[in-house]
Amino acid sequence: MDRRQFLAAGGLAAASPVLAQTSASHESADSSTQLFNRIDFTTDGLGLDPREYALLLQETAAKENFDADYYSLGGAIADLERDFAQRLGKQAAIFLPTGTLANHLAVRKLAGNDRRVLVQAESHLYNDSGDGAAVLSGLNLIPLAAGGSTIDVAEVKRWVERSAGGRVESKVGVIAIENPVRRRHHEMVEPGELERVCAYAREQGIRLHLDGARMFSLPFHSGRSVRQYAALFDTVYVSLWKHFNGAGGAILAGDADFISGLFHTRRMFGGSLPYAWPQVALVGRYADSYEADYARSWQAADELIGLLKSDGRFAVRKVPNGTSRFFLTVTGVAPDVLAERAARRGVILNAHPGTGVFSMQVNPTLMRTSPAALARILIASMEA
Fold first, then answer.
1. Domain 290-383 has what CATH class?
2. What is the mean pLDDT, run by run of 10 residues, along the chain of 384 residues?
3. For residues 373 and 366, what is the distance between their CA atoms, to the nearest angstrom?
């Protein structure tokens, strides 16, 4: 048996006596090891710790039909690519190890010889990629909508006309939009204006890329499906770890011609992991139910908010046009003290340093107990 067969067939359990002796069911693990019980307001997904991830990974790899990839080709990776292409309504998709690389390769290929790329000033591509698009691919990122999430079509027109009308013509090749916007506390782009920007870009022959790392939270708040959002764009990137509890990884989807051969560029950029399956093996078990689970999580969050407000020591602020975050402020106890007490009771909080405000991420861990029980934990944590 070669290494790939060994790992895929459950060799992980054989190599680890601890895992081999632990039930493959996380339900039984709850009672014996207290795993899978935290309510974690700091994560987009379940925030699986190493023990939880390893347990579920062993269970998944031991399935009869599970097959590993080789250099990010075939096996579980190919299955995942086909699955997400279908979910997004695109012809094809490719796995990439990071969202940073997914965004970069998308705008690089879409731009071609038209090197200007319009982006949001608050976007990940502009702020968190170390000028990689410029340094590695010669692209000129032009930031719009500073301090906001939504690019106005009038601002887009001004830049398109300015670029085309210079003494040296420098056409805009791509508009890249992040939605929702992490640096804006997961605020979503205004749907109507997004459609107008995309329609104008189509008229001008400008290609479109969606950084949809957390886009599976959008339907609950906007009433528009994931496929409706993806249809506006030539390419779309989705994170595999933020909502779907992978250890890492990203999907980039587009038409078949765009995706064809892109694995060569992936390898050129050092992105072809020899065995990528451990990064994403858990994604399939959460992808089908995520949108329904997210809706139920917000139902629980709204009930919790009502209970906390009635106590009088908690204040809540929601993000206008927000998605997965709200803010909690407390009076009568230091935030770090409350966070420490809550953590001892299995509730993880994150206070902004020096502000006393907690950023509260809504995710499926909220369904691990009732809103009433969770409110009692937070209220008790105010006391001791």
1. alpha beta
2. 40 36 38 78 97 97 94 97 98 98 98 97 97 96 98 97 90 98 98 98 98 98 98 98 98 98 97 97 97 98 98 96 97 94 96 87 98 98 92
3. 11
